[in-house]
Amino acid sequence: MTAFYKLSGSGNDFLALPEPAAPPTAERIRAWCRRGVSLGADGLFVLRRLGEDRGVAMDYWNADGLPADLCLNGTRCAAQLAFHLGWAADRVRIETAVGSVLARRIDAARIALELSAPGEPRARTVEADGRIWSGWTVAVGVPHFVLVWPERLAHAPVVEAGRALRHAAAFAPAGTNVDFVRFPDAATVEIRTYERGVEDETLSCGTGVLAAAAVGLALGRVDPPLAAPLSVRTQGGFGLAVGVERVDTPWSGGWTLGGDARLVATGVLLPDADLSPPPPAWS
After folding, report:
1. Residues with catalytic annotation?
2. Are 189 and 222 in contact (CB under 8 A)?
3. 122-252 placed in CATH 3.10.310.10
4. Fewer CB in 10 Å around end: N or C, the chain?
């Protein structure tokens, strides 16, 4: 039996193992994260204390069992778990595969991260699914391809086009996350994301939110969030907030990402949670 916590960060859900005796195998992660068959989640992280007030370290895997360098909603959830376990009070430094992130409690259900700026967006044209797509590549610890969508996001082909672009030859071999984004006004971002490693649309994606905000700033579609943060609407229904500490440009200052991060369950994974039959031939 394996003790776990279940957390949700604005609809991005995770299994968390605090200081397990050994990290889980890729096969177990895939089984545990498979919805309808096991507990289900977008990913899993292991959280460990570093000691001597040095904060905590997290290792993160997507639902496909493969490690990912960064998951910002997962990092916010990791901070919430550290606070819940009494490993930190209201601020904690979290070591990730791409470096250190400072997290702070906003209130009981919201966590903010203080981050380095994402990479500056680069325009790119990509062929996938028999058509040409013009978007923006942004590095936020993991790769994103951002499409500025001209219509309501309700009609965006997130799964179909997202899957084709995620596997496009232009992004081989690693692939990319794909974001469909609207800017309804200068203070608001709307986003839906097809996530690499989950291989489906997720209800929220923290790195995608930062990528979308970066594209909005680069195109002049949103105002620099200096006095007030940008409001970001996600598919999960939760709002996230992005702030920028501008120095010379948005790419040289610190950024913040804040919003919902909650513990929703705890328990033990029983042996039958490991069962994961192959999908049927027609799937």
Report:
1. 71, 205
2. yes
3. yes
4. C
